[in-house]
Amino acid sequence: MKLEQGLIQVYTGNGKGKTTASLGLALRATGRELKVCMIQFMKGGGPYGEQMAAERLAPFLTIIQTGRPGWVKKDNPHEADKQLAAEALELAAKTVEGGEYDLVILDEINGAVSMGLVPVEGVLDLMRKKPHHVELVLTGRNAPESVIEAADLVTEMREIKHYYKAGVPARVGIEK
């Protein structure tokens, strides 16, 4: 099965659930035997639950991490983070344009743009070159206005209440 028309979706905002929403879409697509590739910007380490699930859902779901373990310093990213993000953007462009995948998720790419790791023009170029049958999802906080304008669907996750503030750490199987 191929998609008749692939669109561009953006999941942004300061609330929890952007990556989770994209993984829900990936689950739905793999159920229909569509091929899905998630490229995770600025994420390394693990193993995380989604990586383990991808192993079980292969060959329909592929997840590629392109970052170092730990957090990227927002105000002063390491040179290695900049290099890895540049390489991830190249990989993303090849993956989107290659047509092997029906759904491509660029997880945390909006955050990579807002931190100056990835140029917004590179993301917009990738969006313009997307083949007609490929669905493209871009996640992460602080989506640039130009990306929002170029997308077909934009969802903003807004934090109202979060248990992290009450001291609940990331939980295996829920956040990782």
TrEMBL record:
Required for both de novo synthesis of the corrin ring for the assimilation of exogenous corrinoids. Participates in the adenosylation of a variety of incomplete and complete corrinoids. Belongs to the Cob(I)alamin adenosyltransferase family. Its EC number is 2.5.1.17. InterPro entries: CblAdoTrfase_CobA, P-loop_NTPase. Pathway: Cofactor biosynthesis; adenosylcobalamin biosynthesis; adenosylcobalamin from cob(II)yrinate a,c-diamide: step 2/7. It catalyses: 2 cob(II)yrinate a,c diamide + reduced [electron-transfer flavoprotein] + 2 ATP = 2 adenosylcob(III)yrinate a,c-diamide + 2 triphosphate + oxidized [electron-transfer flavoprotein] + 3 H(+); 2 cob(II)alamin + reduced [electron-transfer flavoprotein] + 2 ATP = 2 adenosylcob(III)alamin + 2 triphosphate + oxidized [electron-transfer flavoprotein] + 3 H(+). This is corrinoid adenosyltransferase. Pfam families: CobA_CobO_BtuR (PF02572). The lineage of its organism: Bacteria, Pseudomonadati, Thermodesulfobacteriota, Desulfuromonadia, Geobacterales.
